[in-house]
């Protein structure tokens, strides 16, 4: 090592060849790095010698005595801001607005922020920057001594920084906070003589190095604010009115705070350092309800950060998965480990047959057709319902292996379109029942791949593909760059299904105004009788388009064929936009064959007929409106997921045949569309999951980017990455975007560092009442998380879940969260069978109660240990005769009056031997049984 540090080249391979050193595998967890170097201030035009992380050097506004500070904020430059989420959206905390005001006041001779009112939440974009301007103003006519006595005001504005995209206008400035300053310190709020609550906060990690750059780091002030009361439906309670803010010392890294109520929703704060030195004080901070829509995520009208594609990359699987005992669910496959149906597998498991995983080779449809899709999806629905309903299979994953149902490489064909629909249905089932189903698509016969699939089953990856012997997993990635604009033939006819609906109308206008399309055939079941059809037709004609509105069920092949013959030869069909569809949401147990058929007809059957009947037309565009549920899954939409996964597969199939096709898997539209307008509860749940609704302007930009991208299948969904990162578990497909592992390892036993292991250890140390209280707190916390409430302790144990606002989807979410926290396999009907937090707590207490130690098993294990030692005791050793005699005496004692199975000697022995060393075992024999 000394030679190496002085520059001498060392042949390390040769050196270590002379030693017993061996290569060891790297740890499976990520390396934890911590930098000990001071970080430079974030780059930007305003960060120069002034020193503040956000605000740059002030300048005087021409013609006035006002002073202007400017700066920029982004989640990239200030990662700690990503932790401040409201309804899943990153928002600048009010404490940061306070700090900015204090900074401006300090550098203009104003010691006290007399008042600060938050006028609008400052929502931060996932990508890009926010521009800030803070204006320090002196009222006109105020000068000299009068200015020194107070009266100075300030206002803080912000706007989204203009993107480097042509023809995108700048966003207007928005007032977010305003107030006034005092130069005199004035009278402070009463201190320790007033009874109040106490709190403590401490900076950690990289924030420690930043503390000296702020007057008071916003993280510290935000952390000690009191918890507000719960807001009403559709509102969020936040601190909006601040009075008498004073900073006594700068650069604190830890504070102790005392909060004193001054009203129903207001408190006084007094912050000190750990040594009692005053740091800051606030005479009053008042909380108020703000409408939830004010926290809507920042929309990027260019769509540049909301278009993705599914990339397949080599899987990082465990190097050793251990032995996996497989069973095969296939009535036609020979062998002793083959089972004809779900019930036969369940009976075998219940009888003690070792089954770690079940492989289901899914039969490939003989030919592509609408009938084949319905048949395959119906069989999949029946099978998965039977599998999930059988509690005997709760710990056994089902591995469904299709072949040719998806494409992982460019120009790869999807040869089993019915299998694509099956995979979509099962992705929704995975969302409702995590860790119960694994999806695999293979390029060879799945039987015989069990050894290769064993690491996949153990990894926790929900979906994979086997290609050329390698295992690939899907990850969503940003779609960057365009391959050229889609040509919309201005002289040709474009057919729009669902043409009189919300999305059909939206994109009909867009095709006319932005792409110059002059002939539209708008198709819907109601045709001209549809609501708004006449107004839409008049509008499009006023824009110069020739419009025909036709009543036709596109799922009826004959009716569609007849409609296509009405298109004039001089204006042939050159484009198709398929927006039509219906919803019939419901959790898997409630889905029926009819509900599956109705949804498939509107989406899948119509798309297939359009494909077949236009195959010979020279189309320049064939655009299918799919949905993210077909790609990422989603509870309560198995039928819709099946239909949309079929659309994605069909687009890929057409591209492989050299035909035009683009399938766009849309997220939820703000304007409703097929979702008929999401409720506030729906939007809140989506925001917490990391999905925000698509606004019309953004949707139009995404449409243009998708149709020009060149890929067959894309995903158009604005993601809230901060909300994703805040989740306990991120879907595997989103893990790369969120910067997390995105999956849970599947194991039959909890690891030492897993949450479930920690819970089990904690419960084992508690008495019965303490265990019940701990689990009640867990239930209340998870209920609050599902309902987006900030007061888990305020959730009454005896109040029914239905009264708390639970529906079928939130019930599934609670079941899944509790299952992940406890490691228990909980039934889908959990909330309905145990309708209150108290009842649910009682169930968890019963299921998680520590089991009494099995003394017989413990004793036998210790005997195994002793036997292992005696094997190496040779006949010619001096101790052989002594040990033999002592063991004979032990056996004689037990035969005369002891009983290994439950007797006093066995119980005592088990207690002593449980943690005994070898020497202690022999000492026990000496003391308890004596020598012969």
Kindly report the average pLDDT value.
83
What is the SS-derived class?
alpha/beta
What is the number of beta strands? Answer: 28
- Overall geometry comes to globular
Strand order of the largest sheet: 16-15-17-18-19-20-21-14-28-27-26-25-22-23-24
Known CATH architecture of the largest domain: 3-Layer(aba) Sandwich
Which percent range describes the beta-strand content? 15-25%
Instruction: Output the number of helix runs.
Output: 30
- Give a short account of the largest sheet: 15 strands, mixed
Give a description of the structure:
By secondary structure, the chain is an alpha/beta fold. It has 5 domains: 59-295, Thiol Ester Dehydrase, Chain A (Roll); 308-478, Rossmann fold (3-Layer(aba) Sandwich), CATH 3.40.50.11460; 493-738, NAD(P)-binding Rossmann-like Domain (Rossmann fold, 3-Layer(aba) Sandwich), CATH 3.40.50.720; 755-848, Non-ribosomal Peptide Synthetase Peptidyl Carrier Protein, Chain A (Orthogonal Bundle), CATH 1.10.1200; 855-929, no CATH class. It contains 30 helices and 28 strands. A 15-stranded mixed β-sheet has the order 16-15-17-18-19-20-21-14-28-27-26-25-22-23-24, sandwiched between helices. An 11-stranded antiparallel β-sheet has the order 1-2-6-7-8-5-10-13-12-11-9. Helix 11 links the parallel strand 22 (493-497) and strand 23. Helix 22 crosses helix 24 and helix 27 packs across helix 29 (904-913). It is globular, with a radius of gyration of 34 Å. 40% of the residues are buried. Mean pLDDT is 83; it is low at 38-49, 141-150, 189-194, 742-755 and 899-907.
């Amino acid at each position: 090592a000394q030679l190496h540090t002085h520059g001498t080249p060392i042949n390390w391979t040769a050196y270590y060849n002379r030693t017993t050193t061996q290569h060891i595998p790297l740890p499976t967890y990520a390396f934890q790095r911590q930098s000990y170097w001071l970080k430079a201030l974030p780059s930007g035009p305003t960060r120069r010698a002034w020193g503040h992380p956000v605000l740059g050097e002030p300048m005087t506004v021409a013609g006035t005595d006002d002073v202007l500070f400017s700066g920029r904020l982004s989640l990239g430059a200030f990662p700690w801001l990503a932790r401040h989420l409201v309804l899943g959206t990153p928002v600048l905390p009010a404490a940061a607005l306070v700090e900015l005001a204090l900074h401006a006041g300090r550098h203009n001779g104003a010691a006290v922020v007399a008042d600060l009112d938050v006028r609008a939440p400052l929502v931060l974009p996932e990508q890009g920057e926010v521009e800030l301007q803070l204006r320090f103003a002196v009222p006109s006519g105020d000068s000299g001594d009068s200015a020194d006595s107070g009266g100075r005001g300030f206002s803080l504005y912000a706007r989204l920084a203009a993107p480097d995209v042509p023809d995108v206008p700048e966003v207007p400035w928005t007032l977010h906070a305003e107030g006034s300053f005092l130069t005199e310190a004035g009278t402070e709020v009463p201190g320790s003589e007033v009874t109040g609550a106490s709190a403590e906060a401490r900076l950690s990690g990289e924030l420690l190095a930043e503390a000296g750059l702020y007057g008071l780091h916003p993280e510290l002030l935000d952390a000690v604010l009191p918890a507000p009361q719960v807001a009403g439906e559709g509102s969020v309670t936040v601190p909006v009115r601040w009075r008498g803010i004073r900073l006594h010392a700068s650069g604190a890294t830890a504070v102790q705070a005392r909060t004193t109520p001054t009203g129903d929703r207001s408190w006084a704060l007094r912050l000190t350092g750990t040594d009692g030195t005053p740091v800051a004080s606030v005479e009053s901070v008042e909380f108020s309800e703000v409408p939830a829509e004010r926290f809507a995520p920042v929309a990027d009208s260019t769509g540049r950060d909301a278009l993705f594609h599914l990339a397949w990359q080599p899987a990082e699987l465990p190097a050793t998965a251990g032995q996996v005992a497989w069973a095969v669910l296939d009535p036609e496959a020979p062998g002793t480990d083959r089972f004809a149906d779900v019930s036969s597998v369940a009976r075998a498991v219940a009888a003690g047959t070792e089954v770690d995983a079940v492989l289901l080779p899914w039969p490939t449809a003989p030919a592509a057709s609408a009938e084949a899709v319905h048949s395959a999806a119906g069989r999949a629905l029946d099978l998965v319902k039977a599998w999930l309903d059988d509690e005997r299979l709760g710990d056994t994953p089902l591995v469904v292996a299709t072949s040719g149902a998806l494409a992982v490489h460019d120009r790869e064909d999807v040869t089993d379109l019915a299998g694509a629909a099956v995979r979509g249905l099962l992705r929704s089932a995975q969302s409702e029942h995590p860790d119960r189903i694994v999806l695999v698509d293979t390029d060879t016969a799945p039987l015989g791949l069990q050894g290769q699939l064993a690491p996949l089953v153990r990894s926790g990856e929900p979906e994979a593909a086997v290609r050329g012997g390698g295992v690939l997993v899907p990850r969503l990635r940003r779609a960057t760059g365009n391959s050229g604009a889609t040509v919309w033939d201005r002289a040709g006819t474009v057919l729009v299904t669902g043409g009189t609906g919300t999305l059909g109308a939206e994109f009909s206008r867009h095709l006319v105004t932005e792409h110059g399309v002059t002939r539209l055939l708008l198709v819907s079941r109601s045709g001209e009788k549809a609501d708004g059809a006449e107004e839409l037709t008049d509008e499009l004609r006023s824009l110069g388009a020739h419009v025909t509105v036709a009543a036709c069920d596109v799922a009826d092949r004959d009716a569609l064929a007849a409609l296509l013959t009405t298109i004039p030869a001089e204006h042939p069909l050159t484009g198709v936009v398929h927006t039509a569809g219906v919803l019939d949401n419901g959790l898997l147990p409630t889905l029926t064959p009819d509900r599956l058929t109705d949804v498939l007809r509107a989406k899948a059957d119509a798309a297939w007929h359009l494909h077949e009947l236009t195959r010979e037309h020279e189309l320049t565009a064939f655009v299918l409106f799919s949905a993210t549920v077909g790609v990422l899954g989603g509870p309560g939409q198995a039928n819709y997921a099946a239909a949309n996964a079929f659309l994605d597969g069909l687009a890929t199939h057409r591209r492989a045949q050299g035909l035009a096709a683009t399938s766009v898997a849309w997220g939820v539209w703000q304007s409703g569309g097929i979702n008929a307008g999401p409720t506030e509860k729906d939007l809140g749940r989506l925001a917490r999951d990391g999905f925000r609704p698509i606004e019309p302007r953004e949707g139009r930009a995404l449409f243009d980017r998708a149709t020009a991208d060149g890929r067959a299948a894309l995903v158009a969904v604005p993601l809230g990455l901060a909300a994703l990162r805040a989740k306990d578990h991120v879907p595997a497909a989103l893990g790369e975007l969120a910067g997390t592992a995105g999956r849970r390892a599947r194991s039959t036993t909890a690891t030492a560092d897993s949450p479930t292991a920690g819970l089990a250890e904690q419960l084992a140390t508690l008495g019965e009442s303490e265990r019940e209280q701990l689990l009640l707190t867990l239930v209340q916390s998870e209920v609050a998380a599902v309902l987006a409430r900030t007061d888990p302790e305020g959730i009454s144990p005896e109040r029914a879940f239905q009264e708390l606002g639970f529906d079928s989807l939130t019930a599934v979410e609670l079941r899944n969260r509790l299952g992940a926290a406890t490691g228990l396999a909980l039934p889908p009907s959990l909330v309905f069978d145990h309708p209150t937090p108290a009842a649910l707590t009682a169930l968890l207490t019963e299921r998680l109660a520590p089991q009494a130690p099995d003394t017989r098993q413990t004793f036998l294990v210790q005997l195994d240990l002793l036997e292992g030692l005696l094997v190496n005791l040779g006949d010619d050793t001096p101790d052989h005769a002594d040990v033999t005699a002592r063991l004979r005496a032990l056996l004689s004692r037990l035969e005369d009056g002891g009983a290994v199975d439950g007797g006093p000697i066995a119980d005592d022995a088990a207690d002593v031997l449980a943690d005994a060393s070898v020497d202690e075992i022999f000492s026990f024999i000496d003391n308890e049984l004596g020598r012969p």
